[in-house]
Amino acid sequence: MTSKMKKLISASFAVLLVFALSANFAVGQGGGQSQVQGETVVDKVSENSDTSDFSDLLEQSGFAQVLAQQGPYTVLAPSNDALAKGEVDVESAKENQKQAQQVVQNHLYQGEISADEVESSMGVKVQKEDESPANGVVYVVDKVVTR
Fold first, then answer.
1. Which CATH code of 1.20.1440.230, 2.30.180.10, 2.60.40.1910, 3.30.750.24 fits the domain covering 3-141?
2. Chain segment 59-84, per-residue pLDDT in tens
3. Gap between the Cα atoms of 135 and 141, Å rounded
4. pTM of the model
């Protein structure tokens, strides 16, 4: 992975994390970010039976609330097979928010990234692409992304 891409990924995650924390604070204070009109990236992940385990991890991690907001976001959703083959204890992560966050954070990016860029820089193969969410794009990928 190129140094430029690593910096982009790190910056993207930092922005997403700050956004997540501020959105959770604002919601707790009676405020909140504007909700997306139409299906979100979270909706698309949860509708796909091939990504049901990742959908559960999104919910457990708390990132699903963030990804319901205006984007755009890019979500690399590992298939259930990819999670099973990776070094992820999915069942344990489904019960532990911190573990779920550690897995999920590597698969979320602020902004839209093309499928070609995802494949060339992340070392994964895009199995399915869905550009229809109102707030981003979802790629079902064949591997768990690690940083």
1. 2.30.180.10
2. 999 999 999 998 899 999 999 999 99
3. 19
4. 0.79
